[in-house]
Amino acid sequence: VSDAGTPLISDPGYRLVAAVHDHGLRVSPVPGPSACISALSASGLPTDRFLFRGYLPAKAVARQKALAELAQQPATLVFYEAPHRIEACLEDAAACFGSDRPAALAREISKLHEEVYRSDLGGCLAWLREKPERIRGEYVLLVAGAAAVAADAGTALRVLNILREDLPRNQAAALTAKITGLNKNELYRLSLDQDK
Question: For the chain, what percent of residues have pLDDT higher than 70?
Answer without folding.
Answer: 88
